[in-house]
Amino acid sequence: MAERLSAEARKSALKELPGWTDTSGRDAIARTFTFRDFNEAFGFMARAALVAEKNDHQPEWRNVYKTVEVVLATHDAGGVTALDIDLAKAMNAIARQLGVA
Amino acid sequence: MAERLSAEARKSALKELPGWTDTSGRDAIARTFTFRDFNEAFGFMARAALVAEKNDHQPEWRNVYKTVEVVLATHDAGGVTALDIDLAKAMNAIARQLGVA
User: Fold this and answer.
1) CATH code at B74?
2) Residues B62-97: pLDDT tens digits?
3) How far is A42 from chain B (nearest CA, A)?
């Protein structure tokens, strides 16, 4: 099972994850992605969903038209683990390909 | 442009929409769908997204693992219109095919 990252490890991981921040009030990381339109936003979600399912680690996310708000945490570990960092990295890579830095 | 439904018309439409209710605090309708797993939840979203895009009328929705919380309203009309009722009907039909009544 994935282990909860130490504060140090998480801080270090976040430095490599543009756009992601600690969430206030819970042990999780979050990012809001803004695309050009719904087509791109949902295209991002579709690609991210395949990554999530492959890794058996799913995001919490909310989509309103061209924005996608993502929160990542590992329920079983009670906080942020390497699984979350990996998914955040994958999401950033997909967004980058869609022209969102 | 779609016109905001009267209270009467909305009430009548909701009767034909199992699971959907008025949201408190804003002029919108909402339903939470619960599927068997993430695969089914995202499959539902993918099909609903195609309907939404075709009708150029997108939902607000939040997905956490096997649940999808949907809120529908028509921004331009400041409330619920026939566009929302049509999308809600389409979502119920997709969910029904996935075994969610």
Assistant:
1) 3.30.1360.20
2) 999 999 999 999 999 999 999 999 999 999 999 999
3) 7
